[in-house]
Specification:
Length: 482
């Protein structure tokens, strides 16, 4: 039964999403520590939205040794590697994780770098867990003889109103905290689940192999009363890759945790992380910065006279309400892709031809254009078939991007799989700088010289983030500056 402290924690989280109890000196201590140790955190991001809390860092989409070496060659304490494994089956996800771990071990050995892996997953608990953690643990043992003491499970994502209290993970929805198991995300056709109680979620996801009572818990009381020393004692007690549940309602909580983790790493312990985006900002010592201005998210070259381009693949209810609000507020050109036609080999080419021609005409004529998939969700009998449908639809969106003959003045991609495929296959990005956020939880990449359109701001909008007016808000901010 929730107690008075629990209710106060919920009240704090709701009244101030980032909760004012924080201390700038903690983040400074983290930065100082990382400068001294040169320790690197390498984030394997299962879709491109994981950079939604950070700025002035780089993401690579190619994990060959040369690109990893390039990514690790500056003084930054964090590097993201986009794996996009959430859109793949288990076999491919395992293969990608093994290959990355093997290559990272080889490169860091050559460069003399100590590192820790973070598996960045979804703040609504979707993705390949425990598979990715298990594979990373196994490959680290094989490639570097590293024994993992435990993996920290931290789905808290404050910018998106996601908090973990009394071991239960909540989403802030319309002024209330709702267990994530009671939201649409728990019904995901590939990664669905039944409980938001994280120790029980671990048991569910491991098919009972890891019982809930085997999970180690770091409570808010441990963090607030015991501080760094108490959390450190809990961390160093872990062994055999134990799941470690971290409760968090604020960056203060994560900063205390991060200092304890760094102290435990110094003592010789090795950890993995299965986290949402907020933890990375804390443990890499990244300071706050204001949201990006309109000038920073629109190309500053000859393309500024072209139309902007918004492409939407996510089919969540949240996304549908957001694009409906955008279309209601602004006279943007609207093109719906008929998904049943895309999935039918006999009509796919004709439908794509129609869309590509319209998009190119609009953008080259200076008209802002929204392309979105038809909203009726097509669900197959099993997870593999659902993944194939998702990949086929996303592939069609990539073809639309590839067909662009002129550079849009801005690009927004809505949805995790969509934004990843658009980044890697559509825009051919290998190495991008993260400029910051357009609004809370919505990162902006700057494409590199190798991309289809170089030096182009690319706005990556997660499918499960934002309020009804969020896409319209970004669009309005851009229009105001013109």
């Amino acid at each position: 039964m929730p107690n008075a402290t629990h209710y106060q924690d919920m009240k704090d989280a709701l009244e101030n999403p980032l909760f004012s109890k924080s201390d700038d000196s903690l983040r400074g201590q983290i930065r100082d520590h990382l400068k001294q140790t040169k320790h690197k955190f390498i984030v394997l991001d299962d879709d491109p939205t994981g950079v939604q809390t950070v700025h002035d860092i780089y993401v690579i989409t190619d994990w060959s040794k040369d690109w990893i070496k390039k990514g690790l060659s500056d003084e930054r304490s964090v590097l993201y590697i986009l794996t996009n494994t959430r859109s793949y089956n288990e076999e491919k996800a395992e293969r990608i994780n093994r290959e990355i771990v093997e290559n990272v071990v080889a490169v860091t050995k050559e460069m003399g770098i100590e590192f820790t892996f973070i598996s960045r997953g979804d703040s609504t608990l979707r993705g390949h867990y425990p598979l990715e953690i298990d594979v990373m643990q196994d490959q680290l043992k094989k490639s570097a003889d590293i024994e993992i003491s435990g993996h920290l499970i931290i789905p808290a994502f404050f910018e998106g109103h996601r908090y973990t209290l009394d071991n239960t993970h909540y989403l802030g929805v319309d002024g209330k905290l709702v267990p994530v198991s009671e939201t649409e995300f728990a019904n995901d056709s590939v990664f669905g689940f039944k409980t938001a109680d994280l120790p029980k979620w671990v048991e569910e996801k491991t098919n009972g192999e890891v019982k809930s009572d085997k999970a180690i818990v770091i409570s808010l009381e441990d963090i607030h009363t015991g501080g760094v020393d108490k959390v450190y004692d809990i961390l160093v007690s872990a062994s055999d890759n134990a799941p470690i549940i971290v409760n968090a309602k604020s960056y203060y909580d994560l900063d205390i945790l991060s200092l304890a983790v760094l102290k435990a790493i110094d003592s010789g312990k090795h950890f993995l992380f299965r986290t949402a985006a907020s933890l990375v900002k804390s443990i890499a010592g990244i300071a706050d910065r204001p949201y990006l201005t309109a000038k920073e998210i629109v190309a500053d070259d000859e393309s500024k006279n072209n139309g902007g381009f918004i492409i939407v693949g996510s089919h969540t209810n949240k996304t549908t309400s957001q694009i409906n609000e955008l279309m209601k507020r602004y006279p943007i050109e609207q093109i719906e892709i008929n998904v049943p036609k895309i999935l039918d080999d006999s009509t796919r080419a004709e439908e794509l031809n129609r869309v590509c021609q319209l998009v190119d005409e609009n953008v080259s004529s200076g008209r802002d254009t929204l392309v979105y998939t038809s909203r009726d969700v097509i669900i197959a009998k099993d997870k593999e078939e659902n993944l194939k449908i998702s990949q086929s639809v996303s592939g069609s969106l990539v073809e639309v991007v590839q067909s662009l003959k002129v550079k849009p003045k801005f690009i927004i991609a809505k949805g995790g799989i969509t934004s990843s495929d658009v980044a890697t296959a559509g825009l051919e990005i290998k190495y991008a700088k993260i400029l910051g956020q357009a609004i809370a939880g919505v990162p902006v990449w700057l494409t590199g010289p190798e991309a289809k359109f170089k030096d182009t701001p690319y706005i990556v909008f997660p499918g499960n983030v934002g309020e009804k007016e969020s896409i319209a808000q970004i669009f309005e901010n851009i229009k105001k500056d013109q």
